[in-house]
Automatic annotation (TrEMBL):
It comes from the Bacteria. It is a multi-pass membrane protein. This is MFS transporter. The chain crosses the membrane at residues 44-62, 74-93, 99-122, 134-156, 162-181, 201-218, 230-247, 268-290, 296-319, 326-347, 353-374, 395-418, 430-453. Keywords: Cell membrane, Membrane, Transmembrane, Transmembrane helix, Transport. InterPro entries: MFS (IPR011701), MFS_dom (IPR020846), MFS_trans_sf (IPR036259), Sugar_transporter_CS (IPR005829). One of its GO terms (cellular component) is plasma membrane. It comes from Agromyces agglutinans. It is found in: Cell membrane. PROSITE patterns: MFS, SUGAR_TRANSPORT_1.
Length: 458
C-alpha cells in the first residue's frame, strides 16, 4: 500500500479519527458546559445525545445517499457541512443553539462516515489488503475516541468552546487533501455499479423520530410521570412499525428488510451497539465522578483517562495480526469481554481511591476497543456486494450511535433517580455501572454466537 492509495487511506482515517475525537471531547467538556450554561444532568446528556441522534438517525440515509449520489460527492459535501456547524457551535450563547449545532454536526457525520467506509471497501480489492485497510481505518477511528478524552481535557483548559473550534481546523485540512485524493467515480479502481433510484427521505425521518422518542423515554423515566415515559415508548414502537411499513412499500427503501437477515452482519451491528452503549455510559459517569464528586479539573481527568489511548498504538499494529491468526469473532469476543472486565473493575470505586486503583479499569477499556472495534467493522462489510457497502456501513454506524445514545440516556436516568433518592455520590456511580455491565454482557453473548457460527462454517 503506497502512493495515492496510501494517501487516500490517510485522509479517510483522518476523517474517522476526527469523528471519534469530536464525540469523546465533549465527554470531558460537559462539566464546564454545565457550569457556563446552567444545565441539569438530564439536559447535560443531550449535548452528546443531540449529536448521536443526528448521527445515528440519519446514518441509514447517509449510507444510501453514498450509493445513490456517489461516494466522493457525499463525502466532500458532508465534510464541508461538518466544518460549518462545528464552528457555529463554538459561537453558541444559549443551550438551544448549542444543541442545534450538535445535531446538525451529527447529521453531517451521518453522511460522511458511511461514504468514507464505502470508499475503502470499494477502492481496495477484497481479501487481505481490504481487511488490513479496514482494520487500520477502524483502529484509528477507535483511537479517536480515546485520544479525544485527552484532547478534550487540554482544550477545555482554554475554554469549552475550543472543543468546537479545533475540529474546524482539522476538517479544513482534511477537505483540502480529500479533493485531489478521493477518486472520482470513473477513476475508482473498484467502484462497482452506481445504484439508481431515490433516497427514502420519509423512512429516514420516521426512523429518526422513533429513536428520538425512545431515547427521550429512557431519559425521562427517572423523573417524569409514568404516563409520559410509557407514551413516548409507545410512540417509538408505533414509529418503528411505520418505518417497517414504509420500507416494504418503497420503490427504493432505505433498508431492504431482507438485508437484515444476513446473520454475520446482524451480529456485527448488535456487537457494535453493545460496545458503544457500555463505553458512553461509563465515560459519562466516570467524568462526572472525577470532576464533580472529587473536584478534579478537566486536564487531570483527561490525563487519568490517557491509558484508554492504548488502542491508538495497538489497534493498527496488533489487531490485524490477531485477526489473521485467530479470526474475526474470537478477537471480537476478547474485546467485548475486556469491556465487561473494565466495568467490573470499577465497581468497588470509593471516594478515596487512588489513580492506581482506577487505572486497570481504564486499561481494560482501551484493550476492548483495540480488539473489538476493527473486527466488528470488517464483519459488517465482509462479503457484502459493492452496491450495498454504503447501506452496510450506514447500519453499522447507526448501531454504534443508537447504542451510544441508549447507554448514555439509561446511565443519565439512573444517576438522576439515585440523586433524587438521597444516595451517597459514590454509591450513585456504583449503581449507574449497571448499564455498562448489562451492555457488555449482551455483547459477549453476541460474540460467542459469532464464534460458534464461524466454527460451524469451517
Amino acid at each position: 500500500m503506497r502512493g495515492r492509495a496510501l494517501g487516500l487511506l490517510v485522509v479517510l482515517c483522518g476523517a474517522a479519527f476526527l469523528e471519534g475525537v469530536d464525540v469523546a471531547m465533549f465527554g470531558i467538556a460537559l462539566p464546564a458546559i454545565r457550569a457556563d450554561l446552567g444545565l441539569a444532568t438530564g439536559e447535560l446528556q443531550w449535548v452528546v445525545s443531540a449529536y448521536i441522534l443526528g448521527y445515528g438517525g440519519f446514518m441509514l440515509l447517509g449510507g444510501r445517499a453514498a450509493d445513490l449520489l456517489g461516494r466522493r460527492r457525499v463525502f466532500l459535501v458532508s465534510l464541508g457541512v461538518f466544518v460549518v456547524f462545528s464552528g457555529l457551535g463554538g459561537l453558541a450563547s444559549e443551550s438551544w443553539m448549542l444543541l442545534v449545532a450538535r445535531a446538525a454536526t451529527g447529521v453531517a457525520a451521518a453522511f460522511m462516515m458511511p461514504a468514507g467506509l464505502s470508499i475503502i471497501t470499494t477502492g481496495f480489492r477484497e481479501g487481505p489488503l481490504r481487511t488490513r485497510a479496514l482494520l487500520i481505518y477502524a483502529g484509528i477511528g477507535a483511537a479517536g475516541f480515546s485520544v479525544g478524552l485527552v484532547v478534550g481535557g487540554l482544550l477545555t483548559m482554554f475554554g469549552w468552546r475550543w472543543v468546537f473550534f479545533a475540529p474546524v481546523i482539522v476538517s479544513v485540512v482534511l477537505l483540502a487533501l480529500a479533493i485531489p485524493l478521493v477518486p472520482r467515480p470513473e477513476a475508482a479502481s473498484r467502484g462497482g455499479r452506481r445504484v439508481r433510484g431515490r433516497a427514502d427521505v420519509a423512512g429516514a425521518v420516521v426512523v429518526t423520530s422513533a429513536f428520538l422518542a425512545l431515547i427521550t423515554a429512557i431519559e425521562q423515566s427517572s423523573h417524569a410521570e409514568p404516563v409520559v415515559t410509557w407514551s413516548l415508548a409507545a410512540a417509538s414502537a408505533l414509529l418503528l412499525a411505520a418505518f417497517v411499513a414504509i420500507e416494504r412499500r418503497a420503490a427504493e427503501p432505505l433498508v431492504r428488510l431482507a438485508f437484515l437477515r444476513r446473520m454475520p452482519q446482524l451480529r456485527a451491528y448488535l456487537g457494535a451497539a453493545s460496545l458503544a452503549a457500555g463505553f458512553m455510559g461509563f465515560q459519562f459517569l466516570v467524568v462526572l465522578h472525577l470532576q464533580e464528586e472529587r473536584g478534579w479539573n478537566s486536564l487531570a481527568t483527561s490525563l487519568a483517562l490517557l491509558v484508554l489511548g492504548i488502542d491508538a498504538v495497538l489497534a493498527p499494529l496488533l489487531t490485524p495480526r490477531l485477526v489473521a491468526r485467530f479470526g474475526l469473532w474470537p478477537v471480537t469476543l476478547v474485546g467485548l469481554a475486556a469491556s465487561g472486565a473494565s466495568f467490573l473493575l470499577f465497581l468497588p470505586v470509593a471516594a478515596d481511591w487512588t489513580y492506581a486503583a482506577m487505572s486497570p479499569s481504564f486499561l481494560a477499556l482501551g484493550l476492548a476497543f483495540t480488539f473489538a472495534y476493527g473486527p466488528l467493522t470488517v464483519a459488517a462489510t465482509d462479503g457484502v456486494p459493492d452496491e450495498d457497502q454504503g447501506l452496510s456501513g450506514g447500519l453499522l454506524y447507526t448501531a454504534f450511535q443508537i447504542g451510544a445514545a441508549t447507554g448514555l440516556a439509561a446511565t443519565s436516568a439512573l444517576i438522576t433517580a439515585a440523586e433524587g433518592s438521597g444516595v451517597e455520590p459514590v454509591e450513585v456511580t456504583r449503581l449507574a455501572l449497571v448499564v455498562p455491565l448489562v451492555a457488555a454482557a449482551f455483547g459477549v453473548v453476541t460474540a460467542v454466537s459469532g464464534v460458534v457460527a464461524s466454527r460451524r462454517r469451517r
